[in-house]
Amino acid sequence: MSPALVAACLWIVAGCVAGMLPARDNHWRAARVLGLTGVPILIWLVATSGLLAGAVFALAAASILRWPLIMGARAVRARVGGRAR
Questions:
Q1: Predicted confidence band at 82 (pLDDT cuts at 50, 70, 90)?
Q2: 30-69 as b/e: b if 16+ CB within 10 A
Q3: pTM of the model
Q4: Contacts by 64-73, CB closer than 8 A, 24 or more apart
Q5: 28-71 pLDDT, tens digit each
Q6: Residue 19 CB contacts under 8 Å (≥ 6 apart), including other chains
């Protein structure tokens, strides 16, 4: 198993553990850290293991970080001119 794949699997486990821990800020601090560390891991994974492994990791990351993605999409939609809920 490649080191990039091991790092991606550890990132997914860390995201699941962070979601299980209690947090006063509704896990936004963990989401920021996971987002900042997930992007380089995704690039490293695509560079070493290919697009399929990167796509699987990106889907898993989107599943773990779904609320930051939803809120970001709402912010972009509001700035572009659409209605934000």
A1: low
A2: bbeebbeebeebbebbbeebeeebbeebbebbeebbeebe
A3: 0.83
A4: 64/12, 64/15, 64/16, 64/19, 64/34, 65/15, 65/31, 65/34, 65/35, 65/38, 67/31, 68/28, 68/31, 68/35
A5: 899 999 999 999 999 999 999 999 999 999 999 999 999 888 99
A6: 27, 30, 64
For residue 17 the two structure tokens come to 């553990």
Residue 24 CA, chain-centre distance (Å), reads 20
Domain boundaries defined on the chain: 3-80
Cβ neighbours of residue 63 under 8 Å, at least 6 residues apart?
none
Structure tokens at 37: 């560390």
Q: Which amino acid is at 6?
A: V
